From TrEMBL:
It holds the Pfam family Catalase-rel. Belongs to the catalase family. HPII subfamily. Decomposes hydrogen peroxide into water and oxygen; serves to protect cells from the toxic effects of hydrogen peroxide. The keyword Transcription does not apply. Its cofactor is heme. This is Catalase. Residues 25-413 form the Catalase core domain. Gene3D superfamilies: 1.20.1370.20, 3.40.50.880, Catalase core domain. The lineage of its organism: Bacteria, Bacillati, Bacillota, Bacilli, Bacillales. InterPro entries: Catalase, Catalase_AS, Catalase_clade2, Catalase_clade2_helical, Catalase_core, Catalase_haem_BS, Catalase_immune_responsive, Catalase_large_C. Its EC number is 1.11.1.6. The keyword Cell division does not apply.
């Protein structure tokens, strides 16, 4: 693994401790001579209160857990570096985006939203994509998702939304699922969610890997350059490997076969040196153009179609180091949309405004007080000084008698800094209005972009959306809710709504007028934008007693293409001269991007396991390779994505899925 020595890593190094080869001590440093027996009055007698070692060990254990995040509890993170491709000083004075080749250490946490900390990775859900940039001007957090819009428009509805999607409160069922009554009841009664639900029902919500999904800031922010010129901005992360997804049946099986699928994928890729890479892009709208669009640019249920507002790529992030300790780093990382640097500011997007309160507030309970910024993972790499003092777990020893401003005793320091010297100054937007609990008329079109998304999908993507709606609503017990949702989606597309109605036993909706959409947005289709690549794809090679001697060549071809290879057989140990990694019992075809069969088994029960493995890969539209002597593959031999030489296999694997099988 590459040793990363950026400034954040140097800082963390001071906190790293290896316990290996060290004597066992108490937390006070006292060496311990015995750690298996508590101190007792007699061998069979009661434990003594004076056993400080027992009490310290047990007390610490009793207090090991902290509350999990109220949302995004399940996550996984890595360290890395962000490097600019070009100088973006024309649009922002944020120094980490200024100059070409400017490097900034980052820490990224990916997550699911609804499930608990121990839930499965591959559930249908949005994915969190939170990045902490340790800049020289302070930490900047870009707290985004892998879907560019959100369910609600105003943060005040967030507790309601989360209550609806989380397990139902009477029986705490179901875990990490939106396929239940309260979620869909919320959707039907809060129709601003229409657009987000389209994305949620698409393959975006079952990514193949954290490394293969886009990231979006979702909310509208503001960029300000050194001259004070401002743009509204939306942030994008574009994965270098392209956007790839699982299929739903596969995702559900993986949830049982390997609930850590995404976590493992991220960890192993970094350990193997296949560092995940994402390009950072921005969409920009000059402030004077705020009202020039058919949608309100402050509405987080709307995208800015990339065809209308192009994405400008600013640089690339590479994740090159796994954490040393999950709790200390991943669990204690505290992200906040309000952690900004000069050159980045907020808009009046009412979802963002509420987030600005919530993130610090939640850390207070989760991390136990106001000093979470002192935890190594959260600590800025630039100096920080202020008059905040004390609180649980305070680590800094602020010296001197002064902890207030203004003062004479410390020469009025720490002192505020002018804007010219890097002091943060809020963008001076003129605001005026009546105090009202209301939403702008311009936020009230809920169906145009939901329809835009639908019309921008390819046929296979549309099929998957209908399948997903039918699955989710099919799990809803209350028929009135099913009906309400179907009627709601008649406002998006009659063909969509009636196809769902047919599948879930609901009378077809009445045809209503739908928004007039004149253009589509190809940028939202992951099929249209599919990137062909095999780097870091995982392939199972099935090895039998009859595997050909050419296996070496096959493995060498795959490795030269940066494909990860696992040898699978009916038993571990040596088969046909090769050390076997996994068996049909310890692994499953759903854990691979493709399968290559190199011979038939002599034993018919083993043969049927191999056939089952391949059949499942075939059903999930994966690439299948075989050597010529494998006769049982003949029925599918000439089908799309089924090939019999390594080169064609690599070529077919790059396509990721062969949807034509599913269409038939
Ligand atoms: Fe969050 N969100 N959120 N959120 N969010 C949290 O903060 C909140 C929203 C996102 O890996 C919480 O530290 C409100 C949108 C991510 O640690 C909490 C609203 C987007 C993460 C919170 C939203 C996100 C969180 C829970 C509605 C995409 C995980 C734990 C207005 C742009 C960060 C925590 C990590 C976490 C509040 C909506 C992304 C409670 C009030 C939209 C990636 O503060």
């Amino acid at each position: 693994m590459k040793k990363d020595v950026n400034q954040k890593q140097q800082q963390l190094e001071a906190f790293r401790v290896s316990d290996k080869d060290q004597p066992l001590t108490t937390n006070q440093g006292l060496k311990i001579s015995e750690d298996e027996h508590s101190l007792k009055a007699g061998e069979r007698g009661p434990t003594l209160l004076e056993d400080f070692h027992f009490r310290e060990k047990m007390t610490h254990f009793d207090h090991e857990r902290i509350p999990e995040r109220v949302v995004h509890a399940r996550g996984s993170a890595a360290h890395g570096i962000f490097e600019t491709y070009e100088c973006a000083s024309d649009i922002t004075k944020a120094q980490f985006l200024n100059g070409k080749g400017t490097k900034t250490p980052v820490f990224v946490r990916f997550s699911t939203v609804a499930g608990s900390k121990g839930s499965a990775d591959t559930v249908r859900d949005a994915r969190g994509f939170a990045t902490k940039f340790y800049t020289q001007e302070g930490n900047y957090d870009l707290v985004g998702n892998n879907i560019p819009v959100f369910f609600i428009q105003d943060a005040i509805k967030f507790p309601d939304f989360v209550h609806a999607v989380k397990p139902e409160p009477n029986n705490e069922i179901p875990q990490a699922q939106s396929a239940h009554d309260t979620f869909w009841d919320f959707i039907a009664n809060n129709q601003e969610s229409a657009h987000m639900v389209m994305w949620h029902m698409s393959d975006r919500s079952i990514p193949r890997s954290y490394r293969m999904m886009e990231g979006f800031g979702v909310n509208t922010y503001r960029f300000i350059n050194a001259e004070g010129k401002a743009h509204f901005v939306k942030f994008h992360w574009k994965p270098v490997l392209g956007v790839k997804s699982l299929v739903w049946d596969e995702a559900q099986i993986i949830a049982g076969k390997d609930p850590d699928f995404h976590r493992r994928d991220l960890w192993e890729s970094i350990e193997r040196g296949y560092f995940p890479e994402f390009e950072l892009g921005v969409q920009l709208i000059p402030v004077e153009d705020e009202f020039k669009f058919s949608f309100d640019i402050l509405d987080a249920t709307k995208i800015w179609p990339e065809e209308e507002v192009p994405v400008r790529i600013l640089g690339k992030m590479t994740l090159n180091k796994n954490v040393d300790n999950f709790f200390a780093e991943t669990e204690q990382a505290a992200f906040h949309v309000g952690h900004v640097v000069p050159g980045i500011d907020f808009s009046n997007d009412p979802l963002l405004q509420g987030r600005l309160f919530s993130y610090t507030d939640t850390q207070l309970i989760r991390l136990g007080g106001p000093n979470f910024h002192e935890l190594p993972i959260n600590k800025p790499i630039c100096p920080f000084h202020n008059n905040q003092r004390d609180g649980y777990g305070r680590q800094t020893i602020n010296v001197g008698q002064v902890s207030y401003h203004k003062n004479s005793l410390a020469n009025n320091t720490p002192h505020p800094v002018s804007e010219a010297d890097g002091g943060y100054k809020h963008y001076e937007e003129k605001v005026e209005g009546h105090k009202v609990r209301a939403r702008s008329e311009s936020f009230k079109d809920h169906f145009s972009q939901a329809r835009l998304f639908w019309l921008s999908m390819t046929d296979i993507e549309k099929k998957h959306i209908i399948d997903a709606f039918s699955f989710e609503l099919g799990k809803v017990k209350n028929k009135a809710i099913r009906k309400q949702v179907v009627d709601m989606y008649a406002h998006v597309s009659y063909s969509l709504a009636s196809a769902i109605a047919e599948r879930i036993g609901i009378v077809p909706p009445i045809e209503v007028e739908v928004p007039h959409i004149h253009q589509t947005s190809p940028a939202v289709s992951q099929v249209i934008n599919a990137k062909e690549s095999v780097k870091s794809n995982k392939v199972a090679i099935i090895v039998t007693e009859n595997s050909s001697e050419k296996l070496n060549e096959l493995i060498a071809t795959f490795l030269s293409e940066d494909i990860v290879v696992e040898l699978v057989s009916n038993k571990q140990g040596i088969v046909s001269g090769y050390e076997i990694h996994e068996t049909f019992a310890t692994t499953s075809s759903v854990l691979y991007d493709g399968v290559y069969v190199t011979g038939a088994f002599q034993d018919s029960s083993q043969q049927s396991k191999a056939e089952q493995f391949i059949k499942q890969a075939y059903q999930h539209c994966k690439t299948i390779g075989y050597t010529k002597n494998v006769s049982f593959l003949q029925p599918i031999a000439n089908k799309n994505g089924v090939v019999n030489d390594p080169k064609s296999f690599v070529h077919a694997l790059a396509k990721h899925r062969h949807w034509v099988r599913e269409c038939k």
